[in-house]
Amino acid sequence: xxxxxxxxxxIAGVAALLGVVACSPSHPPRPAxxxxxxxxxxxxxxxxxxxxxxxxxxxxxxxxxxxDFWATWCGPCKIEIPWFTEFQRKYKDRGxxxxxxxxxxxxxxxVTPFVAEKKINYRIVMGxxxxxxxxxxxxxxxxxxVIDRSGRIASVHVGLTNKKDFSDAIEELLEDPVQxxxxxxxxxxRGGANGAQPGHRAEPHS
Length: 206
Hints:
Strand order of the largest sheet: 1-8-7-4-5-6
Structural class: alpha/beta
Mean pLDDT: 82
Helix content: 25-40%
Order of helices and strands: HEEEEHEHEHEEHH
Strand content: 15-25%
CATH superfamily: Glutaredoxin
């Protein structure tokens, strides 16, 4: 497990550096979210929160979701989490939710005091390598997916990301009307034993 921890830490550091570079003015502006016809269904999962309740991503259909894979030891994660707490407070009444998936090896032992210390106001569930694999394998932490009301991945952010990139995507998706029940069925891939589609890999938003 420590090798996995070290691998994430090294890759997260590199991704954070690349994230800072990517935010420089020399890079052209990019759209906040992919066009609707280019969005892939988000894999569904069933993970437990701190109270032991099973939470499925599909439970959030009809809402815009910021899905954050993170860990307590991850430096860039600690920078982004206050932003997500702010987004949860600011946009909750408009049909928005943040859902954090902790990838800490020692589980709630580290996560529970961290959540209290940082005053995180959104739900946290405990993930594992299998969960990451459902989303194509996590190249670094944090890795954050912004999901539309129909359960489709509208943008993917690997490593430290500009706060405005998140807020722009959220605002854009909140302006979209709630999809009909028929069209919403395209979201939240339920294939495979754990809701994953074999061979599915999340593609970073660009």
